[in-house]
């Protein structure tokens, strides 16, 4: 989408990129009910995930490139890595913040290349952050609720007795084989499977607004990603067209 | 551009309940490509960091974890999310799942409970 045709200085190119991004951002500040985008959005979830990751990666690489940085697998000196961290993850205040039902307050910066890439793909960084963090932790939320269930507490107590035989100190980390055997024998495995499934249904109902937002913004990002892969030059790391 | 983001963000903030503004500046000090866990809240005290999985954290950090940061680098086919579990070998409940760039300065419920983590393509 960024069509900087500048062949001038690096700085001029950066300004142009920023200007192009501003125009783009202005366009997506208002949520419009886009119709189905051009083709190129795969049907399967795995392929969709890959498309999103590829697009995000490409935007991040382009953003870092505009700051004179590259992502390489080679080890970096601490100072060098700090520069990359700041460019990638942000250097300003952690302006994105969501407190989950589990008690965790998840935060992120909104000024790094990663945040910029997500903003371009998902259109609304704050709404996407809230939806993503919530949906990503539905299982954690369901498991936290499950832990409070009396049936789970009872099964866990049986498991602890099984995994820590009398006369021996209680072990938080029994042998994996013993832990698995005890989970089967004490019924903990079955109780967990049953309760977790039920709690997931409850949690998905509780968080239906976030789930709806998640789907909407993901669909939008898929269309953007498909457009991006169709319209940008195939040369890796290039933002010129 | 910054002002533009701030303006639209402020407008959205009004309709998005539960959002709070954090004040700490800058991302946590955690090498790029790694998952970091600190003994103290707000990324303080001793830090453990991994680029891979660890099914059984060393004793000094297990059950003493108080803040977390995923500085994984994303890319096609790369496992970039981190799942933290309360028991070794990804056992017990998952306490948190973090995408790249996400950090948790403190969590009353998951504080001092982590024993293992695994990188995954999603949560």
TrEMBL record, chain B:
Keyword vocabulary terms for this entry: Signal
Record Gene3D superfamilies: Crystallins
Superkingdom, taxonomy of origin: Bacteria
Signal listed as a keyword: yes
Signal peptide coordinates: 1-27
Protein name: Peptidase inhibitor family I36 protein
Species: Streptomyces tanashiensis
